[in-house]
Structure formats: C-alpha cells, structure tokens
Amino acid sequence: MDDRRPPNPYRPDPPLFPPDDDGPEDEPLVRPRRRREEHEDLTPRFERDAPAPVFDDGNDSPPAPPGEPWRWDEDDEFDDFGGRRSNRGRGDGGGGYASDRGLVRIVALLAVLGAIVAALVLPWSPVRVIGRDSTAPTGTDGITASARDNMPTLPNGFTALSKLYDVRVPDGAKGPWSIEVTLTQATQDASNLGMYAYDGSRWTRIANVALAPGGTAASGDVASPPGALAVLRRTGQAKALALIVQAGDRLDTRALDATSIVAVMGASVGNDGALQATNGALQGIAPSAGKAKVYLGVSDGTETQGLVKALSSTTLQGAHAESIAAAAKSQNAAGVYLDYRNLPGAQKDAFSAFVKMLRERLQRDQLGLVIGIPGSAGANGAYDWNALAGSADGIWLRGVADPAVYYDQMEQLLSTRKAGNTDLAKVSLILDRRSVDRRAQQMSQLSLRDALTIASTIDPKAEATAAAAGGTVALRALNLGDAQQGAGLRWDTTARSVAFAYNAADGAHNVWIENRFSAAFRMDLASRLGLAGIVVDQAKQDDALPDLWSTALLFAQDGSVKLERPFGPYLAPCWSAAQGTVEGSKCWSADATPASVNWRAPQQSGTYNVRLVVSDGTTFVGQELGLRVGTATPTPTPTGTATPTPTATARPGGTTPAPTSTPTPRPTTAPTAAPTATPAPTSAPTPPPIQTSTPVPSTTPPPATTPPTTFPGGVPPGPAGQ
Questions:
Q1: pTM (2 decimals)?
Q2: What value does the CA radius of gyration of the chain take, rounded to a whole number of Å?
Q3: Does domain 127-234 have CATH number 3.90.79.10?
Q4: Domain residues of the chain, as ranges?
Q5: Which tens digits make up the pLDDT trace of 648-691?
Q6: Dihedral sign from CA coordinates of 150, 155, 161, 164
Q7: Fold of the domain spanning 241-443+512-558
Q8: Contact 491, 571 (CB under 8 A)
Q9: Separation of alpha carbons 309 and 316, rounded Å
C-alpha cells in the first residue's frame, strides 16, 4: 500500500499570529447554549465578538396590504422563500385568479419551496447549517444536507445518536460553520459526545458538541467542509494505548487516562542465559501508573548468545520461564512484556515453544503476557506471528529503524501478515519518541532537542576575527544548507517527518525528527491497517523529547488522528541580533531566510551577540555567537540559549502564547498571517535550563499565566500549520 494522501484538512493558509491577551483565556466564545468545557481545547472557536447565529423562524408567509387580499395570477413572481414580489404596473388580464390550473401550479411551487426551507431552516429540520463567511453563501443559500439510508460500520466502542448526513457546501465558501443535527433519540447525557466526519473508510472527530434544550439535537462548530457527518457517543476506548519506560525513569502521566499497560524494562538475559532483574524496578512507576497495569519488561540484552543458551533445550526453557515468572511475581507485576528483538532465525520454533510454556506458567499466577516483535525485514523469519499471537495477549510491533523505508516496508509486512491470517487486531504499533540519525547504514537515536541543537549550530569561524565598525560579518548555519537549494530543514514526504542532512568529520548524516506531526502519520498507519492501537516508547518525563500526548490520547479514545504538516516558514532558519543588522533575514515569513547571511556591525566597538533559531514546527531552539567589533576584548563562547515550544492552544480568535528567550531582544514588527483551523497540543511548563559552559539549548515554556514576550524577529505564529 502506498499512502500519498495530503493532510486532511489541507489548507494552505498559515496560522494566525496571536494577539495580546485582553481577556480571560477560557472565556466562552460561542453562543450561550454551547459553553466549552475546560478540557476541550481541540475544537476551533469563533472570535470573541462574533454574534450568536440567528436562525430563520420559518414564518415566510407572504404579507398582505391592509384591507386588501392578495390577488395571484400566473405572471406573479416569488422570492426565494415563496414571498410575492409586487406586480403592480403589469397587465394581469383584468385581475382575479387566471385559472384553477394556475392556482394549482402556485400551490405546488409554494409546497416545494416550503419543503426546502423546512429541510434546512425550520426548528424541526434534521440538520441546520449556519455560515460565518460574509463573502460566501450563508444560512440555507447554497448549503444542503441529506440523510443516508444506511449507517457505515462504526469504530469499536462507539454508538450513533444521529443519522449520517451528507453536507454539501458551495465551492469557495469558507467556514467556520455551526451545524446542528437532530438526534434519532433525545438524550440529556452530554458525556462523550462528538461530531465525526466519515470519508468512506474511517471516522474522524471534527467537533465537540453541545445538546440543545430538551436533548433533541446536538450542535458543533466545524472549520472546514465536513462532507458526511454524524453525532456519535464513545461508549468505550477505540484503540489500545500502552507505554514503555526504563527502570528508574519518571513516568509521563499525561496520557494515563487512556493507558492500559505500562511496561517497565527492569530485566534482561545475561550472556550466560540467566535472568538479570533490577530489584524494585517497578516500585518507582507503580504509584504513578493510575489504573494502568504495570508489566515487567524483559529484554534479550546486548548479545544473543545468552538467549540462544536459554532456549537450547526444553529443560532450560522451563527454567527460564520459571525465573521470569518469579521475578514478575516478586515485584507485584500484572504481567510480562517480552522484548527479544535480536532473536536468530534458527530459534524460531524454540522461541514459539518457549512463549507457550511461559504463558502457561504465568497463567498460574494470573499474569498477562505481551510479546515484542521487530519489524525489520531480516528478523521476520525468526518469529512465527500466528503461533505467538495464539500464546500471548498481544503483540507489540517495533517499526523499521530507517525512516526512509519505514512506510514501504511496514505496509508490505503487515499486508503480508494479514494475508497469512494473522489477527492484526492483536497487534499494536510501537512509536519511539526519539529522532533518528543515520550515518552510512548505522542508525542512532537522539532527542528532539539534540537534533535541533545540531541544526542551530553557527559556524564558529565568524568569531575568529574582529569586524570593523559598520562592516559586515558572514554568518552561516554550519549544518544547514539553503532551503532554496533543497537543503535545510524540510518535510520529507517519504518518511513523513521533518528532516535535514549535514556533513561532519565522520561522514554524511541524515536526521529525521520525531514530533507530533510524524507520530500522527504512524497512528494513521495503525488505523488504516486495523491494528489494535499504539505503544509509546520512552514514555518518561523528559523535556528534550517531543510532546505526543494530546495526539496519542485523542487517537486512543476516539480512534481519530489529524494528518498535518508543519507551517512551512517555521522550517526556515531565523537570524536575529539585538544590535546591528542581519541583512536578508525574514523570520517565519513566506520568504525563506537563507542559511547564510551577513551581519552589519554597529558603529561602536564592543562584543555583540547574534542568534540562530530553528524549529521543527513545534519547538524552537536557538544558539548565540559573540562577535567582536573594533578593538573589543574577546569574550568566551556564549552559552546557547533556547526558545520554548509555544503553548499550543491555537484556535481561531484565541491567543497562542509566544516563545520566550533569554535575554529578550528588541521587538520587531510581527508579520500577519491567516488563521489555521488546526489546533496543537499543550506543552506543560518546565523549569529553567541549567546554564553550562557549552551551548545546551533547552525548550522551557513560560508559565501559563505569563503574557507573551517578544521573540527575535517578531512573534512567531502558533505552532500548528498545514
């Protein structure tokens, strides 16, 4: 399968620059009957000063002049709602009704027009659509809706509260729209309700809804043409969500509401085949895991010889199973996650037999069992999927390591397994929060912060020689080429992630950055191929790793995922200086800033800092370089500074706090941009970074109550873009 679908919704307009915060953050922005709940930050909202929509009351009877009844004939004209236009001055053949046949035609026309109005406007209409675009048709003009006879198959854990309606919007019309849908059965319970769009193969949540008085209808605000939609209630969880952490990590709890299993990697197989377990590995995680079951994770270690020895005979297999069960029971684990990803192909049958034996042993203690399988092509022959699925509660599939071939190989692998009658409903896809650095054929993993630190490195040659007063200094992003030449940070359509390439002393590197955009495409893969859900690896509290939690939580609870790309101008480097002038630098605008620029020095001698800021579309990281002008004394290489991930509560008419930086540079005029309908997850505040003698950028957002501060080059538009 080759998925080349663009993001949905796909809108080319950039996000809105956040205005100053002049009012309460959570002030209701829609009509009074639709007060937003505090936790609902994924639905677009209207502007604060927008009036509540006014619905037609359906009273469209033609008026009659006082004391004179209307006289109709076949030449009379009607307006769009059946009202009579004045026909005075035109001959009507003596007045009166022209004929009974003419009266029948008039009545029939009125009936047709009345039916159209009733279908879309009257209070008892199944669907009401009210536009908000003053330049496009609004209300009933041009917007139609019709019910389908049959309801498509719903996702697991959902029930329909309305029919499925096809809403047709004229070309060129822009939202948002307020849509009200009549429910098939009245309800007073508004919990877990949502408006969902259906594209012919999957359901996607598009809006939160509020119940009308009496509970006979539900309304929601939709930013783009929804196509087919229905009101659904979540009665259970749509997709499985599990987490993996290492022993000693602090668990990130932001997705615990939907998490079923937390696996703690606290044991491994030694070179002698014996199990090596970390005492108390689960004790630090269990109190923070909530209702999730905590499993003991067992890996095969760095060498395969110990695993081969443990599986070499039935007796040794039994002893190995007994030691794993004993370790799990001693740490009060609810089950075992077996991550033997380096299994030699010759051990296929032995491993299947061992898993069956381990399953039987764990059942005696009422413990669960999950098996990890690598997706790499060379390892496929070492694992009998059907046998393992029959012996375990589930399979956790680790994706191909090379992002350049990830989708081609993973889709081929899963399609082949499905054709081989493997129950993919027992398979969950592992998502690693770490980015990937490929040098030659070697893959290494690094954090989002480390990847952006590499990208934001300034060539140190610029500080070697003092510049003349008023002269220029050539600046270059050491590891970024010019975007105009296809280099620099870019969206890789094959890997479906932000990527860049650079050369170092040890050779050429290619870096693929993992963030919420790339994670959403992996979740979409799991959804399209009918997998049980996802597993987030490296689920620890670490500000250097990307925030995937809002996206993962929505996917697990609703089975929905929005496919987006970063706002394009965010991927261009941003050069700035508090003093002097950076020539040719336009930060976060349609005109991409080059990776190499000139800095014109001030007329006064001294040492001045210039800054390079880069972004993957969600997080902004920068480094500074001290430049000498005239005879100033050289200064040590400054500590790198970082700009934070903007708080991503972006919504039309809302306020997106801007990143902050230390020190705060002089403000510049921020460009304007059109709003985007795509909200982003919210980043939690983190403590300030510890300054060191080397540039170690950090991503520290301000507290939620801190007003936006000026960012170099202007306030960047919110983090979400198309």
A1: 0.68
A2: 31
A3: no
A4: 56-122, 127-234, 241-443+512-558
A5: 333 333 333 333 333 333 333 333 333 333 333 333 333 333 23
A6: negative
A7: TIM Barrel (3.20.20)
A8: yes
A9: 8
